[in-house]
Hints:
Layout: E1 2-13, E2 16-28, E3 33-37, H1 44-51, E4 59-64, E5 67-68, H2 74-84, E6 85-88, H3 100-110, H4 115-128, H5 144-155, E7 162-166, H6 174-191, E8 194-198, H7 202-205, E9 211-215, E10 218-223
Amino acid sequence: xxxxxxxxxxxxxxxxxxxxxxxxxxxxxxxxxAVIVGPSGSGKSTLLHLMGxxxxxxxxxxxxxxxIISQMPDNPVTLFRRRKIGVVFxxxxxxxxxTAVENVMLPLILDGQSRVKASARAETLLERVGxxxxxxxxxxxxxxxxxxxxxxxxxxxxxxxxxxxxxxTGNLDSGTGESILELIRHINREEGCTVVMVTHNPRAAxxxxxxxxxxxxxxxxxxxx
Length: 225
């Protein structure tokens, strides 16, 4: 499903080079709920972004569903990500001038679907994440937990086989965060969606299966709690 082969990522910061990943090889099989943990600066988010085609490695290959996305041109990788990979961020990344239903509809509209079909799909997903009564509200009119549920609905609008979550509970209180984790676990178990989640929260890590520990851009260990 997801394979990384000796992936390095180096950022140029002025005259200095910052190594975020120092040679990571990793396999995430279909249907797994993998959790990436590690201290700040260990390369967690960089690794997730490379898996999602949001960034490119300095060296090595990133393969998703048999496609080497690290070598694909920008437009094809954008289309591939839109249909195959849902991404959920800590700070939601919702469009503030669009209502809840419009935020979920937008990827479908950009993909060429009619507004009628896009609206029907969006409303179905909002109902599944418990927001059917909030579809006409703007993000600023929703709570943090509601905005994250909305972001998950948008990420899942194409029913992608892969869901990547970058600190999805980092901006939420503990009770709300657990409801989001339950939703992500439900998507993994009931939809068969492969989930890779980055977190610094040990309690959140317990919702997954395999835990992958990163430190200084390298995998320390992987275990199944």
